[in-house]
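Researcher: Here's a chain I'd like modeled. Treat it as a single chain, no partners, no ligands.
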Amino acid sequence: MSDHNTIALAKTGDATAIAILINQALQPNGVTATATRQGYHLNVVLESQHLPDTETCIRVVYNGLMRLEADSIGSVTISGTRLGEKKPGWTQTLVLREVVCVPQPTNIQPVNPPKPKQNPQFLISKPWLIAGSVSLIILPLSGFFLNQNYQKITSFFTTIPQNISANLSQIPSFSFAVEPVSTSAPISTTATLKNLNTVSQFTLKTLQNPINPDLQLTIRAVGDIIPGTNYPYNKLSSNKNALFAGVKSELKGDIVFGNFESTLTKYPYSAKAIGRGLVFAFRTPPEYTALLKDAGFNILSVANNHSFDFFESGFKDTIQNIQKVGIKAVGEKNKIIYHEVQGVKVAFIGFSNYEYHNNLSHIEAGKKLVKTAQKNADFVVISFHGGSEGTGALNVRNKTEYFYGENRGNLVLFSHSMIDAGADLILGHGPHVPRALELYKGKLIAYSLGNFMGYRTLSTVGELGYSLILEAKVNPQGDFIEGKIIPVQLNSQGIPALDQRSKSVNLIRNLIQKDFPKTPLKIDKEGKILINKP
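Model: Modeled as a single isolated chain. Structure tokens:
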């Protein structure tokens, strides 16, 4: 294909020709482009070894399309991704022209043909830009959608220069290495163009009322929670409202997560022969769900070694009682829980080392669940209960861990595999002590959040009493931005309070240096978690 033909085809809206031009502009930066088109919408995917620079790519594509003056393209979605990753690192949508439709295009024969004076006209207005996330993507026009709950749309629309960074009208000889992409003829139905006009009007309204461009989700997560038990005898607090009083002020965020390591049931019979060694059964009155709700929790894991303390009946009761107060329970086998916040759809999957939950040692089965979740949500959170227990289990090792002969999984292998499959955040619990944090492929892994509450049930000796509220700020694509460790200390009764001595901050900082010395995470003395720039 000659340079002249490439330009000519691109002016008609041919996606393959447009991809060739974009490649010529961006390949010196190591970026490869592919493009598809349906109707008046163009979709451009940019790939490179490292995530393509957003601003550079936006300018090249925007200015190139504006110079081409391809009237058949009204909008374009540009996605940047790393090679080998299916999920884009960023996505931006531009509405290039406002298209106003009047009745039917001439190439479609309506049931009642219009009079000649009613022939359609397409009015083109000035270009606009929406800079968004995966929650605001203009898909092919036959399947248009806008997430009306999306609350953060950037106003990066003002000063994109008109000079394209590569001279697209003077293209040298090249070999087109991009796989040919099929294009479809423009779809010009009344409904389709009406949708495009609706999007443009929505864009105009948004730009007139700018919204904070920096959408972030704040997740706060804690470890094991046992607010008391009445089995085999009463170990409940005479003032249960005081249990979370010392930490309630910090249990706030878009998502507040914890591992509920008891049951919420009245079922009378336990599945465990308690009193034999380290065998315990925990049963908390169902009305304690109101206490958990009032504390601030909206997501609770029930995938742990105490969820079946009172057989399947107790497990089902626990889930139902949690759900009754509007909290979502995560941990049923083969089940993904979805939760929407700020227009971002978040998926949760719970794992443990037992067959009656999703078993963390069954890596391939776990990856299938994650891939399903990733297809149906913007952001995927994994909760796992695994690893050895006690003060001798502070360190993370990339090998299978055992506790009293029981396989508790290889937590490094599991966590990395889930992120490779599409997970965005890993929240671990089970060892009863805090463990190191790791940043893997831009995603945060907390290998253990320790004990958070164990009223007269959990030991608080030494590091067993060191606790924390982990805060993670993430973007809708799941990348960790920053966070902090809010230090907590459990008293002798297992009640948490904020710790002014920051013992868990110092502990986790030291554990990171020992277990993951190459991770780019940095924790300062105040507990703020940052990413070291290379």
